Known about the structure:
This protein has helices at 12-22, 58-72, 118-123, 129-145, 154-171, 176-202, 235-238, 242-256, 259-273, 282-299, 305-314, 333-340, 355-362, 378-397, 411-424, 437-446, 456-463, 481-489, and strands spanning 27-28, 32-36, 41-45, 80-88, 94-96, 101-109, 206-208, 218-221, 224-227, 239-241, 322-327, 351-354, 402-405, 428-434, 473-476. The N and C termini lie far apart (52 Å). The chain is of the alpha/beta class. Strand 8 (218-221) and strand 9 (224-227) form a beta hairpin. The chain is built from 18 helices and 15 strands. The protein folds into 3 domains: 9-111, Phosphorylase Kinase, domain 1 (2-Layer Sandwich); 118-314, Alpha-Beta Complex (Aminoglycoside 3'-phosphotransferase, Chain: A, domain 2); 322-489, Rossmann fold (3-Layer(aba) Sandwich), CATH 3.40.50.300. The strands form 4 sheets. The chain has a 6-stranded antiparallel sheet with strand order 1-2-3-6-4-5, sandwiched between helices. It has a 5-stranded parallel sheet with strand order 12-13-11-14-15, sandwiched between helices. It has a two-stranded antiparallel sheet with strand order 7-10. Mean pLDDT is 95; it is low at 1-5. Helix 4 (129-145) packs across helix 9 (259-273) and helix 8 (242-256) packs antiparallel against helix 9 (259-273).
Amino acid sequence: MTQAGGIPSAQAEVAAFLAGLAGAAPIETHISAIFVGRETAWKMKKAVALGFLDFSSLEARGHFCRRELELNQPAAPGIYRDVVAVTRAPDGNLQQGGGGEVVEWVLRMAPIPTGDFLDRVAACGGLDDKLLDAMGDTVFALHQAAPPVAGLDAPAAMASVLAGNLRAARAAGLPEAIIAPLEAALQAGLARLAPLLAARAAEGRTRRCHGDLHLGNLCLWQGKPTPFDALEFDEALARIDTGYDLAFLLMDLDQQAGRAAANRVLNRYLARLGDYGLLGPLPLWLALRALVRAHVHAARGRDGTALLHAAQAYLAPAPPLLIAVGGLQGTGKSTLARGLAPALGAAPGALLLRSDELRKRRFGLAPEAPLPPEAYAEEVSRAVHEELFIIAKAALRQGHAVALDAVFLDPDHRRHAAEIAARAGVPFQGFWLEASMEILKSRILARRGDASDATIAVLERAAKADPGPIDWIRLDAAGEAQAAARKALGVTG
Length: 493
């Protein structure tokens, strides 16, 4: 029996006590009740057993409170404070701490304003480029800090996750006419990708991840996107490939904020980490995350069929292609490439490879960090372009579209880009941006927080070089380059 609101009757006294401390009724999920006060929030785990978790005993709730604190405090130290016992005082009343009988365990946290949850920010159209880049940086740091998991049979673990979610989808009443073909496609994809998943596990990509990394479990804390509520009750759902962890956020962004937002986070994450091997399994992971969201919606009385259709679409991606954007510094290459990328190939759009970002990662720096002049030596530039082409080849082999962003003054570089596409059997289109020196100089002087370190002197040297014959589509960088490029590619929207 439970009281109104879904809190088990055995916890009614504690709930009333915490509501008194908070001065407000709790915010409830199916497994927790959060009592939000002015300075403190108290999170109580409900005494429920739901099959996939068992919080029915006081001992279990204490254990999982401490586990939640352990998992979340490193990434969100300002949010997660401690675990405290609710005890019975000698006069029979309840209190925080004290030496009396422990009647409940609760997490003490900092309150988070409702408008600072990133699903709310997304709903209000507040996910700007700066915040999206910060989200990519946040997930990169989270995964770098996550401990690797050794000895895990990654394909078998993924098969178990898939089976559990299919059971949940059917139990939630989702239509079998959609689930059955989706199941077949997911099983086929998993069988095809099993060797790659095993190889990724062997190279340390399986880690103790967040496990539930969607927009609702990220918030703005001190102005930065901060993950919280990492999955604490099932290690099997959290000991996963980092790419599968990321995929929940990408799917959520794709469905709630649009493909451009998801594409930006993906490319920022890859620019920091360089884990391009996740592109191959990404359609499978996105589909599985859409299935998760579908049955959660259905279990809560919402229509999950649109998400099932989204899962099907993720498993039938658009074919890959390769585009390249060249031109002098300041012509807007990155703006054009980034604008085109979301519309190209498999969700959430093309891999964007910027030579400037690759150069920064070679030196262990974030894209916006400046490099010394020696980082632009000829031998470094040669190595950067070699890496650019190697990554492009690998991504195309995995069935993912690629957008290359570099100066491409060297005719050999332009020729090499076209050859890569031809050998991969995919379409290729090069774009060459042009503008007056006056415009280019003004753009370079106006740059702030960009991966390019180009100066006026760099531009002037480049302008004196002979690029040779250019057979790419020439675009006016001062005009409607984006519209012209989209028309050339047959891209709408």
